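Below is how a single chain appears once it has passed through the pipeline. First comes the sequence as given, then the structure the pipeline wrote out for it. We keep one example in the README because the format questions we get most often are answered faster by looking than by reading.
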Amino acid sequence: MTKKIWLGAHTSAAGGVHNALYGGKEIGATAIQLFTRNQRQWNAKPMTPDEIALWEQALEETGIGEVMSHDSYLINLGSPKEEARIKSKKAFYDELERCHDLKIAYLNFHPGAATGSSEEECLDRIVESLLEMEELAAKGSTRLLLEATAGQGSSVGHRFEHLAHIIKGAGKKVPLGVCIDTCHIFAAGYDLRTEKSCQETLDEFDRIVGLEQLYAFHINDSLKDLGSRVDRHAALGEGKIGIDAFRFLMTHPKTKDLPKYLETPEGPPLWKKEIILLKEFAEKNHEYAH
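Resulting structure:
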């Protein structure tokens, strides 16, 4: 029996979170990412019993698993401004509560931005903010995934060392891990253009963070060059990374079984084609050296 390939995209929850699951089914996905509430608003209502029931029914009907929630873009757990940090922690707490209500596997989040303070101070504030989630985190099975960033502006998380620092500081108390966005790490300076460079980047991640901390991928090509620190997604094979990286991730023993979520432009029509392409890579099962 072949292992299930966990593959999907960030689907729309318009009209109810359950619709994200049906949207995933329509594009041939086995996994999805979604926003559980409007990602551009601070305040969000908790899940209602009716919403949870519709969600559970949709899960059963679609067979989708490895669901990942993406937190609000407004949240900055490393803000040097106390008021902003308090708002961020409250919003993040609510995000995690909704994930528990829906029994979502992963809550993906951008670590934060220094906004005038040093990167190290920002990283330490993120650790402190996450440690405050310990009690709530223990109430469910959702794992919090730090998303590797492109390094735009004052954001942290664009060096593997940043991710390792946060995991070292909070990972023993809160279930943490990493989601690698291929566009982001490429823009941050980690090469993915050939099988060799993909292996070298994977080895570097293993050395600094540890492959046991890697739980998921956002699968995107990059419109901008290596090390540009500009986050612009492109269709697979249509950007500066090229197609070899995605073949590598779908077949390498250390990455092929991890869930992967497309965030490429154009949406569902493109995602259908890209899911077929990625599945073909996996099924051909090229062998790569460990």
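The chain has one domain: 7-284.

See the next section for the split statistics.
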